[in-house]
Amino acid sequence: MKNRIKFLSVAALLAVLLCMTFSGCNRHPARKEHVIGSGQKTVLFLGDSIAEAMAGPSPLTERERYGYYGILGNINDYKFYNRAISGDQTSDLYDFIQREDDGINMVKSLITDSDIIHVSIGGNDLLGHSVDDMIINAGQGDYSDVDRYLENAYNNLDKIITKLREMNPDAIIILQTQYNPVGKDSPLIGNRARTRLNAMAYTPNDYHRLVGGALNRLNDMLRKYLTDNENKFEYEPYYLVDVASAFEEIYNASSTRERWSRLFCPDGIHPANEGHALIAEANQKLLTELGLASSDALEKYKTLRKEQLDYLYSMSVSTSSVKKKIDESDTFGDVTLSYFNEVDGKDISYRVPKNVKPVGNHFDEDKIFNITTFSVSGLDLTKASVSSLPNPISIMSKQNSYIAFYADGTFEMKYAVVDGIKEVLSLLVNWGLFALPIDVNELIDLDIDYLQERFLEHMFPGFDYTNLIESLDLISDTIGFSITGVDLDSQAVREMAKELSKSGHLVLESLDIINRDLGVTWKGTYRTVEQKSKSTGETYTAIYIGEEFYKGESYLRFTYKESPSGWDTVRMTVDVVDLVCEGRSK
After folding, report:
1. What is the pLDDT of residues 173-201, one digit of tens each?
2. Contact, 88 vs 153, CB < 8 A?
3. H or E element that contains 374
4. CA end-to-end span of the chain, whole Å?
5. Please, are residues 222 and 177 in contact by the beta-carbon 8 Å criterion?
6. What's domain 42-292's architecture?
7. What is the rounded CA–CA span in Å between residue 234 and residue 29?
8. At a CB cut-off of 8 Å and minimum separation 6, what does 253 contact?
């Protein structure tokens, strides 16, 4: 029997050698090797809110230094672009990557030109449905709905990867697994689910495992695609970074979950600053293995964190001792721990835009534009009107609303309400069309406590609606948005702020707070960059707004077009809220 086994082993070895010699026996064709050049790499980030990094970084002004896309881009000296959109599912991403270039967003050109395309997608294919139903069904061992959602996601993923490979056969494509953010106190689990699970003898300590069953299926789907399509393309369909395991390792490291809880925002979904650092670390390992990481990336990461210490925590942290720990760190993860262990819960000091000098190129002369379109989710605010009047009037003042780029590198945009709006509203009150006081919370279904606890406090540390005036000043100082035409020092505003502090309701008792020049103003700095679309051959002038960017792009940006007719135009879009703002030169 032993001789027979030995004979079969020798025969098997000969067969393997023959298959290696003759390509006809090779089931897997030799995969083409990526040729990695020595120049600066261009990286495009696509996908969902995790990649977009708007709901995660705290403060929001540090998006490019705390968001994983910015960390990777900055420490590796990449030329990097972020075109991710919060809420996108796989079907949305497939539609997005087929967009024609129509300005400086240039999706097609960026896909074609990128050396690396990084994608975060799939989580919303599950979270777009009821999380309560999902975890209740999981408690019953039923994942049939999840499997159905993921079957559709798999088909969309195939279309996405096939399209990306068609547009850029040589790019290195990276995807990442989805982490499990659910703990026993997760805001994602509603009262209905908690009651049902309790009746099934589950405790809150089981929530993580039950939701993990669904997310494991999502991550297995990403792995399955690789197995199913290993021979479909010249290169790997994509490389998969196991972010989920990195988060699970921290979850399992301590029963108190202290560090694990630091990884997430108050909304219970998005990665907070340290969560983004963990995602960046997992991706950096792959980039290093592929020879795509900067040789001094670790030192650059140390520098990034030490700079943040200086301008964010110099008043609340012993920065010298923390810097020493960072300098002595041997790994990416050690730097992250040294930094976040010390700054956790500490007060920050903002860098305010008014103290930042404009950088880069600017227009040679002031350029001022009338606002022609300002729409959000299909509602055009340039055409909104008070239709209850015998002769309806438009709410926006076309004369006083504008977009301005000044030659000194400063920027200003104002959406102004028509003069006399106070008198118009007074008429409507007198006619009985609406009555004072107005509870704004009921008018627009506003839950100020939810908004503050889940988002505003995180995005703007120090924001507190019970100190309304100070909080409005904080928003103005950090991102340049302010309300004009409202007398914040008036007794009426102080009474309104007092009521808000007491009840959480914003109640308008009187129209006396409204002055002329009512509106919203946005101020900051800008820089211009010439860009050419590889898809259309057209050259655009990109106008980047604000100083929140480090080496990449600002989140808000205009496309400027010079017209031979003299009517120059600017256009800005924000996909997540379907915002379109357009202006035409005066």
Report:
1. 999 999 999 999 999 999 999 999 999 99
2. no
3. strand 367-376
4. 94
5. yes
6. 3-Layer(aba) Sandwich (3.40)
7. 9
8. 259, 260
